[in-house]
Amino acid sequence: MVAAATPLVEFRDVAKRYGAFTALSGIDLDVGRGEFLTLLGPSGSGKTTALMLLAGFERPSAGTILFEGRPVESVPANRRNFGVVFQNYALFPHLTVAQNVAFPLKARGCAAAEAGSRVRRALELVKLGPYSERYPAQLSGGQQQRVALARALVFDPGLVLMDEPLAALDKNLRHHMQFEIKRLQRELGVTMVYVTHDQGEALSMSDRVAVFDSGRLLQVAGPEALYSDPASHFVATFIGETNSLDVRIAEVAGDVAVARLDDGQTVRGRARCKVSAGDEAVLTVRPESLRIAQAPDGVAAADAANGLRAEIADAVFMGDHQRVSLRIGGQSVVCKLPAGHGARPAVPGPALLGFDEAAAFIYSTAAREAH
User: Fold this and answer.
1) Of 116, 186, 193, 371, which residue is most buried, by most CB within 10 angstroms?
2) What residues contact 263, with CB distance under 8 A and at least 6 apart?
C-alpha cells in the first residue's frame, strides 16, 4: 500500500529527551489513511516512545505531531479519539467482557441502546459474541487480547495504536492473532500504528515498516523493499538473516563498488553509502542469495557469478533446505540451498561461492559502527 497524499499522522522533526538522555531524535514520519504501519526496533530503540507521544501519554521535547493536519501536543490523550491496545490488555477484572468493551462508550456518554448495539458488533468482529457475560479471568490470553481489540475499535476511532499486543502469547496463537488483526484492519479500513520488536510480525502484517535504532528512524519502506534493499548495515542485519564480510574498497563506479577480502579475492556490490578507494567497509548478502558450485570430485567449479573460492565446513539438512557453513579466508558465511528435486547435497571440501552483484550491499565501517 502507498501512503495517502495527505497523511493522517505527521511527525515533524520530533525529539524526546529525558534529562541528558535522548530517546528520540529528529523523527520525520507520515502515516497514510487506512495504512498499517509498524514501528520496529530492538528494546530501547525509541519505537514505543514514538507511540506514547502519538497517543498523548508523553509530550515531545521538540518538533510537532499532526493529526489530520492539526497539532495534537496540547490535546489530552483522552480527547484524541484514538484506540489503544497494550501488551498487558489492561482489562477491568471486575467487569464482564461486554462491560469492558462498553467502557469507552460510557466514558463518551453514548446512549445505552446504541452502546449495546456497538458492543455486540465489536464482539462479533473479534468472534467473541458468546462470551459477553464472562469475566477476563475466565478467558484465555488470546481471548483477552480480542476483548482489548474490540474495546479499541468499538467507538470507531480515528486511529488505533498497538504496543507489543501479542508479546505475551505463545507462538501458534501469536501467528493466528496476527492474521486476525490484519483481517480486521483491512475489513474496517482503520489506520493502525503497531509497535513490535519481532521482525517476522512486522514483515507479515504491515503495509510499511519504520525501523528504529538508538532513537533514530533509519528506514521506512514496504516489507519486501526493506528486506531486499536495506538502507543501512543495521537494517540489513536486523531484518532477516544476512552474512557480513569485512572488505576494503578497491574502486567505485557510480553505485557499484569493487572490494577486496582479507585473502585478496575481490567482490562487487552496491554501495549503500559514500565509500572511496581504500576505505574499510562491510559487504552483506542474504544466505538464500548465495550459490555453491562444486565438482563431483570436490574441486571448485568456475561457473558462478561473483565467484569466491571457499571451503565448505559443514552442511545440515533442514527439511526444505540445506544450511551450509563455509569459510572464505578468515571469515565465515552461511548459505541456504533448496533441498529436493534432484539438488546435489553440499559436502565438506573446496567450492566456489557465487552471488549476484545486485544482491550484495556495501556499507562503510564507520556507518556500521554508528549503530
Assistant:
1) 193
2) 328, 329, 330
Cα–Cα distance for residue pair 280/364, rounded to 1 Å: 6
Residue 349 CA neighbour count, 13 Å, CB half: 12
Length of the chain as a residue count: 371
334, containing H or E segment: strand 331-338
Below-50 pLDDT ranges, the chain: 1-4, 297-304
DSSP track, 185-232: HHHHT--EEEEES-HHHHHHH-SEEEEEETTEEEEEE-HHHHHHS-SS
Sorted by sequence, the CB contacts under 8 Å of residue 169 that are 6+ apart come out as 141, 142, 145, 177
Nearby residues of 272 by Cβ (< 8 Å), 6 or more positions away? 230, 231, 232, 361, 362, 363
Q: Quick one: pLDDT at residue 366?
A: 76
Strand order in the sheet with 291-293: 291-293, 349-354, 308-317, 321-328, 331-338
Quick: pLDDT tens for 282-319.
999 999 999 988 655 444 444 446 889 999 999 898 88
From the centroid of its chain, how far is CA 251?
Answer: 34
The answer to whether 265 and 353 are in contact (CB under 8 A) is no
The count of other CB atoms within 10 Å of the CB of residue 51 is: 20
